[in-house]
Amino acid sequence: MRHFGHIPSATRTGLFHSEPAEFTADSPARTLATALGATLYSPATRPRLADDIRKQAARGVVSMVLCLEDSISDADVEAGETNLVRQFADLAAGAEADARTDAGTAVGVPLLFIRVRDPRQITDLVARLGETVRLLSGFVLPKFTETRGRAFLEALTQAERTSGRRLFAMPVLESPELLHLETRAETLAGIASITDKYRDRVLALRLGVTDFCSAYGLRRSPDMTAYDVKIVANVIADVVNVLGRSDGTGFTVTGPVWEYFRPGERMFKPQLRRSPFLEGSAEDLRTALIEHDLDGLLREIELDRANGLLGKTCIHPTHVVPVHALSVVSHEEWSDAQDILRPEQGGGGVLRSAYTNKMNEVKPHRAWAERILLRAEVFGVAKEDVGFVDLLTAGLAG
């Protein structure tokens, strides 16, 4: 699979200075953590889930979570588990059929994760999936703390041993202990300890901002990002501070879900700047984005990246392409990163950007540059004259 692999090769050639690289579910963990992109959630009870997965893969989705937790009722859990086993069998059969067809028309399976409610489900589902477990990349672990998380991670380790399949964990940080100021530091320290112990199994950490808001009876509007809700922004900052460091101790932390609302009365003027949208039909695209309240999503994605988050939880397919379009590395970012990481700059120093608009200080900017080049590998580098609107338009056209 590859990002923007759903668009024609000729279109990619026109957009990218360096095209996104291919990767598989067996690629290194660091690559997969960066490549998650827009992780699309779906209830595990959907009757045509296998078809839904294949359809979304054909539209550019590369990671999905099949949810047995908050998205379904307590009464539907058993049915959801049974449905997952059946749908994985259908997916496996489809993959085998694809293997017998022209490779150019085959539709791959994205990285698939199951969000469970309790540790027992991990070992039970892996046993019930049988050989179709090869299509599973791991599990999403809800309301993760050191105490609660240990049992999940032990179950994951046991499931790996019995299945012979590498399985990753994606803990969700959403517990009240993390939100409440008086218990936050202790909770973060505990999460850091248990995730470090199982570092090889933890692919990324996900933020449960909806649960954070729920603890205070809050719900942000389409005109507000998570960073406008200060109590939430403070938690995000502390999570990145402790768990997102670039010194080798940190993890990929993904951006919070964007909750989709039907348009009501807009309290603020649209946040999208008009200038990038004035050519050709771009103004129509801008209007469509605003009508669907995606201008707030775009702003939040930018703030995610500025605050050290990568990728995003998504609950609607229309959110996927904007997340991926904004994940492509600009030619300017790539140029700066290349300059900073040149071998002859190993001793440090200050460079003028090749774009002559900023200072590149080699030692302080090194970690940033390394992250940029890793993102460039999986999302590609845009050509100098290609911007977000071009990438978005191509991604939507497919």
From TrEMBL:
GO aspect biological process, one term: oxaloacetate metabolic process
Signal peptide: none
SUPFAM superfamilies listed in its UniProt record: Phosphoenolpyruvate/pyruvate domain
GO molecular function: catalytic activity; magnesium ion binding
Cofactor dependence: Mg(2+)
Annotated keywords: Magnesium, Metal-binding
Entry protein name: ATP/GTP-binding protein
Organism: Streptomyces gardneri
